[in-house]
Each structure stands twice: as C-alpha cells, then as structure tokens.
Amino acid sequence: MLFRFLFKPREPQFALEGEVRLRSLGPSDADAFRDHIHELHFENFRDRFNGLVSDEWLDKYIARSLNEAIVIGAFIDDHLAAVAELHTGGSIAEGVGESAFSVSSDWRRRGLGTLLLKALLRVATENDIATIIVETGAQNHAMKALARRFGARMQMQGDQSVGRINVAEGLRLAARSKVAQRLPSVAASIGDMPSRASATM
C-alpha cells in the first residue's frame, strides 16, 4: 500500500484556541504521530520528508523515532498538531542533535514551531547537546526562517538547506521571543521531558 498520503486541498486556517499542551511522545503514540503526518498537505509532506515516502517506510521511521529519539508533541484540545524530534547517537557526533519538525497544515503560522524549538533547546541543554542541526528542503522557507530566528546560518548542501543552532545562543534568543506570549495558555511539562537515556529503549 504505497503513498496512502492524500493530496488534500487547502482549507481555511483556524484560529488557535484552547490550551496548547506539550509532552514527550513514546511508542504508544505511534498512531497519533502517523495521523499527524497524514494530515500534512502535499507541499508540507514533501518538505518534511524531501519527497513522498511509502506507508511501510513511514511506519518504520515513526517506530524508530519514538524508540530512539527525543520526541515532543504539541497538543491542542487533545489533537496532536505539531511534533519536534531530536536525534542523537549513531553517526551523529557527540554533543550534536539532528532536529526534525512537522506542523499540521491547518495549524501553521500560529507559533507552534517556535514553541517546540524552544522546548527542544531546553531538552538539548539538559542532555549535554551543544548544537542542533536543522536540515530542510530549499523550498521550506518557514523552517529556514525559524532556524535563523534562533541563530542558524542556513547554507545549501546539495538539494538541502542546512544550519546549526548553538544551543546556548538559541536559548538566549528564545528568552527574547514574544511568540509564546501570543499563544493561549501553555501547559508544558518541559521539566518532565525525557533525557536521552529515558527516551531510548
């Protein structure tokens, strides 16, 4: 069953209402994570994965991420609207984390990406990660702008735009950001976010 992804038409964006809740995601959240990915409109799905992927590939990716990475979800009224991932280990250098972000198409440009990046910065410093790598497609202008806001200098490497965020500098810039003040109440148990040890099974 390849490419179950639906080419959804654009719909009006909704106002951000209710409480935004952040929490870490684990293997039991695989279905919610998958549903979130399948809510992305075509261009947002393409930006997230640099093209289309099969359902089998996506399921393996979700399982690996939820078992091996630190994954934070942003919920709005119990609906998973955005996800941030921080991958470490393997071929990734010590003290470095590779990030990945997805925001449901109907909730974009509402500050959720900024909120999640702030959470990721805090988790990074608590896990002795000094640098966060951001890699995205050249056409993903929103992600590039978000990374630059936190100190990344984006440069083309092949067909990807890649930048590095110094975590200490990113936290300093995050403290100056006004985006969270424009969001509704945020119930974020960031202090309870997992370390690499507890996030890896």
Radius of gyration, whole Å: 16 Å
Shape: globular
Number of helices: 8
Alpha-beta content class: alpha+beta
Helical fraction: 25-40%
Beginning-to-end CA distance, first to last residue: 29 Å
Residue stretches low in confidence (pLDDT < 50, at least 5 long) are: 1-17, 180-186, 196-201
Q: How is the main sheet built?
A: 8 strands, mixed
The count of β-strands is: 8
Order of SSEs: EHHHEEEHEHEEHHEH
Instruction: Give the percentage of residues in beta strands.
Output: 15-25%
Physical arrangement of strands within the biggest beta sheet: 6-7-5-4-3-2-1-8
Describe this structure in words.
By secondary structure, the protein is of the alpha+beta class. The protein is 36% helix and 24% strand. It has eight helices and eight strands. The protein has an eight-stranded mixed sheet with strand order 6-7-5-4-3-2-1-8, with helices on both faces. A hairpin with a 2-residue loop joins strand 6 (155-157) and strand 7 (160-166). Helix 4 crosses helix 6 (167-176). The radius of gyration is 16 Å and the shape is globular. The two termini are 29 Å apart.
